[in-house]
Amino acid sequence: MSESHTPPSGSARLNTGVAHNARVWNHWIGGKDNYEVDRQVGDHVASINPVVRDIARADRDFLGRAVTYLARERGVRQFLDIGTGLPTADNTHEIAQRIAPDSRIVYVDNDPIVLVHARTLLTGTREGATDYIDADVHDPDAILERAAGTLDLTRPVAVMMLGILNFVLDTDKAREIVRRIMAAVPSGSFLVLTHPTFDPEVGGELQVPAMEFWNENATPPITARSAADITAFFEGLDLVEPGLVSCSQWHAASGSAAAVPQYGAVAVKP
Questions:
Q1: Residue 123 CB coordination number (10 Å)
Q2: Segments in the chain below pLDDT 50
Q3: N or C: which end of the chain has fewer CB within 10 A?
Q4: Which residues are CB-neighbours of 171 under 8 A, at least 6 positions away?
Q5: What integer pLDDT is reported at residue 120 of this predicted model?
Q6: What is the pLDDT of residues 48-92, one digit of tens each?
C-alpha cells in the first residue's frame, strides 16, 4: 500500500475529484503519485477483481522483458511508447538506453500529471534522445507528426501500446489506429501490445464487473476484449514466439508463471 502523497498539478485538465487510470495504476503498483479518490476506487476494483494488482505488475514486467528483447536481441534503437502512464522505475528509455545509449524514445500521453512527471523525470542519455509529447491515442496522425521530430520514421520503430487500446471502446476504431500507426513505420518495425481480457482461460471472469464499476466511478472508460479481437490488432504483422499469451508468461524467466487476464504479444512488420 502506498503512502499518502499529493501529486503536483499539471494543467486545467487536472481533475482531482474523479479517479483517473494513470493514478490508480500507479497506486496498484505501489506508487505515491495518486489521490485519495484514486486509492478508494482502486481498492474497490481490487475487491471485485483481486488479481488487478497482479495484472498491473505483470504488465510492467512485460514491458521490461519486451524492451530488453527488442533492444538486445533485435537491435531496435527507436521506441514510440503510447500511453506512457506515470513514470516509475525502469521506464522504456532507461531499459533501452542501458543496453544501447544511442536509443531514441518518444513517450505519448495526455494526462496532465503524467506530463508534469515526464518533463521532470524522463531524461535520458546524451548519446540518445528522450522526448514526451502530449497527444491522445485517438489522434494517431498527431502522434506521428510530433514523434517525427525525434524519431526517424524511415528506420524501424518499436511501437509500444501497453494497456491503451482498452480505452478505445470501438474495436474498429482501435484497429484503425493500429493500422494507421504501423503503416507509417517501415519494415522491421515492431508492435508491442498488452490488453485486458474477459477470457476465462486466463482468469478473466471478474474483469467485467470490475470494469462496470470502473466505468461508473472513474475515467477514462475501459473495455476488455477476447483473444480473437486482440489478435486482430496484429493483422499483417508476424507474431514473435510464443504469440499472444498472458503477458505474465511472455518470455518469462520461469515456465511456471501464473497467468493473468491481460494478453501480451510482440509482432514484427514484414
A1: 10
A2: 1-13
A3: N
A4: 225, 229, 232
A5: 62
A6: 999 999 999 999 999 999 999 999 999 999 999 998 876 666 889
Amino acid at 88: T
Q: Is 15 helix (H, G, I), strand (E, B) or coil?
A: coil
Q: What is the CA radius of gyration of the chain?
A: 17
d(CA 200, CA 195): 15
Cβ atoms < 10 Å from Cβ of 135: 20
Measure Cα distances from 97 to 67, 100, 124, 150, 153 in Å: 10, 5, 7, 15, 19
Q: For strands 262-268 and 238-239, give the pairing.
A: antiparallel
CA dihedral 43, 49, 174, 234 (to 10 degrees): 130
Nearest partner of 254 among 49, 89, 61, judged by Cα: 61
Contact of 99 with 130, CB cutoff 8 Å: no
3-state secondary structure of 268: strand
Residues 6 or more apart from 141 whose CB is under 8 A from it? 180
d(CA 54, CA 46): 10
- Per-residue pLDDT, 16: 67
Please give the pLDDT value at position 123.
66
Residue of 48, 49, 60, 82 lying closest to 166 (CA atoms): 82
Q: Is 7 helix (H, G, I), strand (E, B) or coil?
A: coil
The residue written with cell numbers 512485460 in the block is 62
How far is it, in rounded angstroms, from Cα 19 to Cα 59? 20
Q: Decide: 54 and 62 in contact? Cβ < 8 Å.
A: no
